[in-house]
Structure formats: structure tokens, C-alpha cells
TrEMBL record:
It comes from Aeribacillus alveayuensis. It holds the Pfam family TrkA_C. Residues 205-290, 298-382 form the RCK C-terminal domain. It is a multi-pass membrane protein. Its main location: membrane. Gene3D superfamilies: Regulator of K+ conductance, C-terminal domain. This is Di/tricarboxylate transporter. The chain crosses the membrane at residues 6-21, 28-45, 57-76, 97-121, 141-165, 177-200, 403-436, 448-467, 487-520, 532-551, 571-592.
Length: 593
């Protein structure tokens, strides 16, 4: 091992550690490592920027726009919601929903599909007295499996396709991955519908948990005539910067004031509703004129009025709120919403609300104004915003929806018959959607997940550094030394397993980019078809079932399903083994034997 190889591998290990420990946003961590390689001369400027002009990466950007236009119409959401009607049995309902969902995921970005269906499925579960935790992990897995069927099914497929083109290979045809993708989807769905859902817990939702333990979340104090700050503002009374409490609402007679502004004046008889660290309420009891109501029957529903609603929101990977405290982002004024509680890994974060540092996948229970949903639609801060009374099904112009779907189908046909490449077809589709005013330029910009693109483009540079310095060849030699004595299948198994471990610990696209040069070195040394190994890496990088952090859709359902980390291990491990065995068998049979 040379000094250069050692340095590259050290930086890669540090990058993996940073991604696992979530020290910062994934795209920032990978971009910093890319910058280090550029500054130390490992990469030239052209090599570092190569990923930003890669065809696969640019195709992903266009795919976001096309998928956003189709999703915006709400046609697919309403069609799937109709399939839930008059269905009571869990296996039958799963079959009726997950089969079309897997099919849609083959052609659309699976993230918006999971985002749209999560509140609809939760509502159906509520009505049928079934725990949503039985459905939400299987929903995520069904979309992941469906994404392996076509080239455009997921960003990982397009990333590997772009790497193949860069390396002088032909790349994948539209349905080539389906040779493996269709069998693993069918077998995977059978497993989820018959065995998988039975391994999942009967969890209560966040609202039900808070409702049952209201005294741990909410406290009520009444303002008496001897309160020294009567008719003065909340700010002047010192109720804005409390040690562990957050003033969520003021009940004044029949009027409910929320969210509470710093300028709101306190009157005698006001009932002040606090959330946060209720154990610190003793501090408030020391203030003259504030009395704790011990026999109150305060519930979440009692906080609502005609202008407010209870909402559950999941913080997204591309949120502007990430790694900042609720106080720093001025949440109350930005969204006209008060945070009642924050859950992470199924557990409530027991801290002063304003001091909680937000991370991807955090679930917020909010008391917010009636315009919160509109504000959410204008940002990428949240994956799922669920009003806890009715499911959020979009009601857009159906005519535009059918235009979007028609353009998507036309694009698929052009690629299938080899008339246009995927990149050209996507470009044409995006232009047509804009010209037909199905989607506005502003909406198109919002649909593109720039942090995902930065992560992927930067990962290309990391992969180039591994090839250029010989680090990829060094790892490939090590893998072959261990696996080759046990035969070709053992080599395929080691490639799949290493890719799958990377994707569970970091992200799917980054895992694919890092493993691609290693796999190509092995293909060269063993004189086997590199396309087979590219297929294997693509499937292994997508097959993230064992942790919630490897794939966005797993993280989206984490909070709403009330899951523990171990729930993913319990139901995902058998599915991972099934997918691995089938994938290695088919790749060996079709491309390598």
C-alpha cells in the first residue's frame, strides 16, 4: 500500500464514520472529502467536477421534475386511496395497494409515493382499528423493490448507468435490471404479505401516545388577580424564555390563542398551557399569581379551535431546519406553529422544546394555524405533513395530471424502442411539462433535491480518487484473496454483501459509486462480464431493508409508524437474504456463467 492509497482510504473511512454518526448533512460530508482530495492534488479540477456533468446524475435531476409533475396532480394518490375502500383484511389490502405501488415505483421516484400514501394508509388503519406500523415499513420496502425493475426506478440505477457510460460501457437498457428486479419484487411482496407484516409491532401513533400521557406533555396554569404582569406582554412577563417550558396556547374564556406571540398580553383568568419539560413546572409555581391546575382534563383535542389544527410532520433530508435548534430557526413565527413534542427513534426527546436540535426523520407534533399546510407546500422542510383529522390527498387539476402521465408514458415508449436515450427523453419530457404549464418553473425547481444531487456528484469524485490512486485495485485484490478460493459465487456474494453494508450505513447512491470501481477491477482480473457486476451492485445498493438510514423512504415512515431500530432488523433481515440469494443466482446464470 502506497502513502497515497493510505491517505485516500483514511479519508473514506472518516467519511463513512461521519455519515454513520450524522455529524452533518451527508452531502456536506462527502463534498468536504472531495474538496480535501482536490486541495491535496489527489484530483485535478476536471476530475473533481466530473460528477457534476455526469449523464446519470443530470438524468436524476430531470427525473425529479417529471415525477414531481405527475405527483402534483394527485391522480395516483386518489386511485390508490380508492383501492383501500371496502377492504378490511391486512393481506388483501396489502396486495391491492403494494402491487400497483411497486409498479409505479418502477417509473416514478419512490419518495413522493411514500410521502403521499403514508397519511392515506394511516387514516385507513385508524378507521379499521389496525396499527399503521403493520403497513408503513412494508410500504417503504414495496417501493424499494419496485424501483429495481427499470433504469428510471431509482437514482441508484441511473448513477450506475452513468458510471458505465463514463467507463466506455453501453449502460443499462430501460428494462435490463428487470431481469433481476421483477423476480425479487414478486418474491419480496409475497414475503411481506404473508410473513413480514406479522413480525412488526402493533404500535400506537404519536398522537395516541401523547393523548394517553397528556400529563407528561402538557401542563395548565391559571393567571390570578395578584399576577404582577397583568395586561403586559408575554415577553415582559418573562414567559418567553423559560428554563424547560414552552407556552403553546392561552385559553381565555371560549377563545383559544395559539400559537402565542411574544406581544400577546396576559389577562386575569387566562389559562396558560405549557409543553416541554413538565418536571420544571415548579419554577413557574414560585411566580406570584400563577397557580397550577392539578385536576385538569386537558387533552390534545381540547387545544384545537376553528383556526388551528394538530399536525404531525417528519423533518426531511433536505430541510433548512437540519442541525439547528427550534429556537434558532424561529419555528413559531416561520410556520405559525407551536411544537408540542419531538419524537426521535420512537422516543420523546425530553428537553426544552426550543433547545432541541432537529435531525432527518424527527417527528414533530404541532399545533398550527390553518395556513400551515400551504406554507409546507412551498418548502422542502418536511416529508410528511399529516393533519391528524383527515388524510391529505391532493386535489389538483385532473386534466394537467393526465397530460403529465401521458408525457411520462410517451417518454417510456421512446426509451423502450431505442428512439431516444434516457437523458434525452427526460429532457424532452421536462420541457413539454413546462410548455404545457403542468408544472411551473418554480415548482420544477422545488421538485429537484439539490442536496441529493450534490451528494451523488461528489461521490463520483470519491470514486475517481479510489481508481486513480489504486485504492480500488487494492481493495479488489483483498476481496479476491479472501473470496476467490471459495469459487466465483463467493466473489459475487462478497461484492453484494459489501455494497449492501455500505448502503445500510451511508446512502444507496454513495455506496454504488464507491463499489463500482472495485467491482470493475474484479471483473477485469477475473475476465468476467462487467455488466453482471454492475447489475449486482445496483440491486445491492438499492436493497436497503435492515436500517432506517440507508434509504429515504425507510426514514420517512420511521416516526409515523412509531418504529424502533430493531423493527427494521427483524423484518428486513429475512428480506435482505431473500433478495441477495435471488440476485446472485440470476446474475450468475444470465451474465457470468
Amino acid at each position: 500500500m502506497t502513502l497515497e492509497i493510505g491517505f485516500v482510504l483514511l479519508m473514506v473511512v472518516l467519511m463513512l464514520g461521519g455519515l454513520m454518526l450524522e455529524v452533518a448533512r451527508p452531502d456536506m460530508i462527502v463534498f468536504v472529502v472531495l474538496t480535501v482530495f482536490l486541495l491535496t492534488g489527489i484530483l485535478t479540477s476536471e476530475e473533481a467536477l466530473k460528477g457534476f456533468s455526469n449523464q446519470g446524475m443530470l438524468t436524476i435531476a430531470l427525473l425529479f421534475i417529471v415525477a414531481g409533475a405527475v405527483q402534483k396532480s394527485g391522480i395516483i394518490d386518489r386511485a390508490l386511496a380508492r383501492r383501500l375502500k371496502n377492504s378490511k383484511s391486512i393481506p388483501k389490502t396489502m396486495l391491492r395497494v403494494f402491487l400497483p405501488v411497486s409498479g409505479l415505483s418502477a417509473f416514478l421516484n419512490n419518495t413522493p409515493i411514500v410521502v403521499a400514501l403514508t397519511p392515506i394508509l394511516r387514516k385507513w388503519c385508524e378507521e379499521n382499528q389496525i396499527s399503521p406500523s403493520k403497513f408503513l415499513i412494508p410500504l417503504s420496502y414495496a417501493t424499494i423493490l419496485g424501483g429495481t425493475i427499470t433504469l428510471m426506478g431509482t437514482s441508484t440505477n441511473l448513477v450506475v448507468h452513468g458510471l458505465m457510460l463514463d467507463n466506455g460501457m453501453e449502460g443499462f437498457s430501460l428494462f435490463e435490471l428487470g431481469i433481476v428486479g421483477i423476480p425479487i419484487t414478486i418474491v419480496g411482496l409475497v414475503y411481506l404479505i404473508t410473513i413480514g407484516y406479522r413480525l412488526l409491532p402493533n404500535n400506537k401513533g404519536m398522537k395516541e401516545t401523547v393523548q394517553e400521557h397528556s400529563r407528561e406533555y402538557l401542563a395548565e396554569m391559571t393567571v390570578t388577580s395578584d399576577f404582577p404582569f397583568l395586561n403586559q406582554s408575554i415577553q415582559a412577563a418573562g414567559l418567553r424564555q423559560l428554563k424547560g417550558l414552552y407556552l403553546i396556547e392561552i385559553i381565555r374564556g371560549n377563545e383559544k390563542i395559539s400559537p402565542v406571540k411574544s406581544t400577546t398580553k396576559i389577562q386575569e383568568g387566562d389559562r396558560l398551557i405549557f409543553t416541554g419539560l413538565i418536571s420544571t413546572i415548579a419554577e413557574l409555581q414560585k411566580i406570584k399569581g400563577l397557580t397550577l391546575e392539578t385536576g385538569t382534563n386537558l387533552t390534545l383535542d381540547s387545544l384545537k379551535n376553528g383556526n388551528t389544527q394538530l399536525v404531525e410532520a417528519v423533518v426531511s433530508h433536505q430541510s433548512t431546519l437540519l442541525y439547528k435548534t427550534i429556537k434558532q430557526v424561529r419555528f413559531r413565527s416561520k410556520y405559525d406553529a407551536g411544537v408540542i413534542a419531538v419524537h426521535r427513534n420512537r422516543e420523546r426527546i425530553k428537553s426544552k422544546i426550543g433547545d432541541i436540535v432537529l435531525k432527518p426523520g424527527d417527528t414533530l407534533l404541532l399545533l398550527c394555524g390553518s395556513d400551515f399546510i400551504d406554507k409546507f407546500k412551498q418548502s422542502n422542510d418536511f416529508y410528511v405533513v399529516t393533519p391528524l383529522d383527515t388524510p391529505a390527498v391532493l386535489q389538483e387539476d385532473p386534466k394537467k395530471g393526465w397530460i403529465a402521465i401521458s408525457i411520462l408514458v410517451a417518454m417510456i415508449l421512446l426509451v423502450t424502442f431505442g428512439i431516444l436515450s434516457m437523458f434525452k427523453a427526460m429532457s424532452l419530457a421536462a420541457v413539454l411539462l413546462l410548455l404545457a404549464r403542468v408544472i411551473t418553473p418554480e415548482e420544477a425547481k422545488q421538485s429537484v433535491q439539490f442536496n441529493v444531487l450534490l451528494l451523488i456528484a461528489s461521490s463520483f469524485g470519491i470514486g475517481t480518487a479510489m481508481i486513480k490512486t489504486g485504492a480500488a485495485e487494492w481493495i479488489a485484490n483483498g476481496l479476491m484473496k479472501i473470496a476467490e478460493p471459495f469459487g466465483l459465487v463467493a466473489v459475487l456474494f462478497s461484492i453484494y454483501l459489501l455494497t449492501n453494508i455500505f448502503t445500510e450505513l451511508i446512502t444507496n447512491s454513495a455506496a454504488a459509486v464507491m463499489m463500482f470501481p472495485i467491482a470493475m477491477e474484479i471483473a477485469k482480473k477475473m475476465s468476467i462480464d462487467p455488466t453482471g457486476l454492475a447489475v449486482l451492485i445496483t440491486i445491492a445498493a438499492s436493497a436497503s431493508f435492515i436500517t432506517p438510514i440507508g434509504y429515504q423512504t425507510n426514514l420517512i415512515v420511521y416516526g409515523p409508524g412509531g418504529y424502533k431500530f430493531t423493527d427494521y432488523i427483524k423484518v428486513g433481515t429475512p428480506l435482505s437474504i431473500i433478495v441477495m440469494v435471488i440476485s446472485i443466482w440470476i446474475v450468475h446464470l444470465v451474465w457470468i456463467s
